[in-house]
Amino acid sequence: MSKKGNSSGFMALVKPWLFLFGVIGLYGLGIVFAPESTYRALNISGSMFLQLALPVCLALIMMVILNRFLSPAVITLFLGRNAGIKGVFLSSLAGILSMGPVYAWYPLLSTLRDKGATEFHLANFIGNRSVKPVLLPVLIIYLGWHFTSVFVLVSLVGALIVACIVSLFCSNSRCPKIDRMS
């Protein structure tokens, strides 16, 4: 085996770990030169990690379930180009009922897109996340029925308008899928 072959094999093993080792090295230098600030930064980073762990794990579990039980044909049936009103209703309902930070849902939405969901339904899902049934009573108490009704209606219609615009400008030919593994 040539020396170049060994070198590229080693780099292939090391490349995924470079960022982690870089961060560990920076924290190591920080502990040496500014221990108080570094411990405070580690505390904040740990807190953020704990806040993100549950939503990211839930999204990963849902992705595994989707990959295991839902075929591209089923996704296309419910969220594809010919899904009709049931696709609009399903993507709206899923957006309204989804919990956690939106960025935790991005990997799941990407998986749905890869399996045949349209940009319209993905944008509709994201747009409908502003309506939260759990918070509606609080909104009604503080801002009243009239404001809450108008807000929810405008949010739902606005999500549909945004989804239409995204769908127009982001068809599969104009918005190519990105290879996330390179």
Largest sheet: none
Number-wise, the strands total 0
Rg for CA atoms: 22 Å
Low-confidence parts lasting 5 or more residues at pLDDT below 50?
none
Structural class: mainly alpha
Quote the average pLDDT: 84
Distance between termini?
26 Å
Percent of residues in helices comes to: over 70%
Number of helices: 8
Order of helices and strands: HHHHHHHH
Strand content: under 5%
What is the 3D form?
flat
Please provide a written account of the structure:
This protein is mainly α. The chain has a domain at 71-169. The chain contains eight helices and no strands. The chain has helices spanning 3-14, 18-33, 35-69, 72-79, 84-97, 106-115, 119-127, 136-169. α2 packs antiparallel against α3, α3 runs parallel beside α6 (106-115) and α7 packs antiparallel against α8. The two termini are 26 Å apart.
Task: List the SSEs and their pairings.
Layout (H helix, E strand, L loop, with lengths): L2 H12 L3 H16 L1 H35 L2 H8 L4 H14 L8 H10 L3 H9 L8 H34 L13
Helix pairs in contact: 2-3, 3-6, 5-7, 7-8
Question: Which characteristics define this entry?
Answer:
8 helices; mainly alpha; single chain; 182 residues
